[in-house]
Amino acid sequence: MSSAGQHPLPVAQFLRLREHIPALYGLLSMNAAILAYTHRELAPGPLVLTVPAILITICVIRMLVWMRPVTSQDLDVAFVTRRLQRVMVLAVVLSVAYLCWALMLDRYGGPYEHGHVAIFVAVTVLGCIFCLTFLPIAAMLVTVAVLGSFLVYCFATGSEVLVASAVNIALVAAILIKVLRDYYDSFVRLELSQRELHSERRQAQALGEENARLAQTDALTGLPNRRYFFAALERLLEQAGPGDVFTIGLIDLDRFKPINDTHGHAHGDRLLQVIGSRIKAQCPDNAIVARLGGDEFGMIVMAGPEEAESLAQVLCKAIHEKVRIADTLVSVGCSAGLAVFPDTAMKADLLFDRADFALYHAKRHKRGRCVIFSRDLEKLIRSEQAIDAAMQTASLAHEITLVYQPIVATDELAPVGVECLARWMSPELGEISPELLISSAERVGRAREVTLILFDMALTALNSLPDRLCMSFNLSGYNLCDGETITALLQRMARTRCDPDRLIFEITETSLITDIKMADIALRRLRATGARIALDDFGTGYSSLSSLHSLPLDMVKIDRSFAARLDESSGRRLITAIRNLARALSLECVIEGIETESQLISARLAGFSLVQGYFLHRPMPLHELLDRIRDEPGDDGAAHTAVE
Length: 644
Fold this sequence. Notes:
Number of helices: 25
CATH superfamily of the largest domain: EAL domain
Largest sheet: 8 strands, mixed, barrel
Number of strands: 16
Radius of gyration: 50 Å
Number of domains: 3
CATH topology of the largest domain: TIM Barrel
Distance between the termini: 99 Å
């Protein structure tokens, strides 16, 4: 067993000695037995039986002691140091005992027996030197004690051969001691370098652990970060057993962006630091709250939805408290969404998505409150997710198309124009409503693509229609705020050399609210070509009069909800007032939603010259529209154009 720099030097010495000392005791025992055997008939019985038996028994016992498994006590420095000291003493005592026994046997026998004794002494010394390499002091003491005594004995006998043999053995032993010392010094240096390397590795490991901790901590707030949040969530899911319940939640700040934009990012960062401190102070032991990025926080609560909702409300209340940053007093709100394991979902991504949808629902419909994901939200998200998934893979050029609903003059009931209406037939979901088509395209980033494909279809259809007919094309709020979309529309108009006077771009008031300045710029770019602008669904928006007054409009289309009131005297007065307002502003006026003959008559009596509705024409494909126009009679169109 090697220390490998993991233990102090005395322990490393002890562990290395365990590999060699049992062999030393085995060598001494075998040599003693062989020497006793060669003198069995020459020396007295006690010298060849009793004394070697005692010495061999001691060696075997010590060999077994050294061969036992290492215990924790054997790795204690103080204990090992005392044990090494005992080894040195015992090595000298045993070596001297063996020498004395060998010299007593040397009194018997002839030249061969005397030579065997000399060899025994030499082998004993050399064996001790090699086996005690990692305890050089003991090796040196044994060498000095044995060889010193042997030299004295040789000189006392007066035998030149014995003296020469002793000198030879001493010279070899001295060389070996020198080699042993050098090897031991290398061992010490290696152990120290390994210990330093091990220390560096431990420091590197500690540094790595610190880096890992920092990698899972948000540097700004000191809260756990997104990586830690999802790692903790995955661990919980792996360890979750039957009956375990926990809740994850998402908290998003309200009104943070205006503060960040108005006061600067330094103020915004300081605000997040204060909020992080408040969250830490309010976070209980059974919950984790992490900053996921920006102004969004995530929480994992080891409890059901009631306790999680209570914690979310506590955190929202703490977040809402005013914060003084420099000379400015600011305050933000927050909304929260929760999802419960296992009722809502059993996978990390699904739990997070459900919590995110609940947060989205809270911000749209219950701002400043906490929403728990429910079955009603499940139905809504399944519908939206299915539509978005279909939209992401849809071959739009083949799946979306246009139908056309005529706009009719009330005097002759003849079409004067058509409105383009989008249709989407998904191979997976079937027919999707235009509203869901547009909203899904905006969510998945294909709004511009949808608009341009439909506009190409509209321009192609416009070339097929009689010159007397104009065409209305609807633009969403996303289109109006996307300068590249407007540029692409203008490029297509120029490339096809269409007559801009025949184009009407329809917008809704709700599409203007997002950024009315951007919308105004876009509309003026379109109108500069000669195209006209119509305000659709008039009367249902938030700022109708201001829109009429400030935007570059040519036409208003009164929402279909007003057509149902044409049969009422109060409704007719209201609609007449709207028509008079439009006329005063030199705007054409179309009333939508005409579904009965009486509504048509009332619209005509109210002074409307343009109408649109199912009673006159339903939306239809281009080929059917062309057939109807071709078959349209010159003076009796009502009977042929009314829809049954």
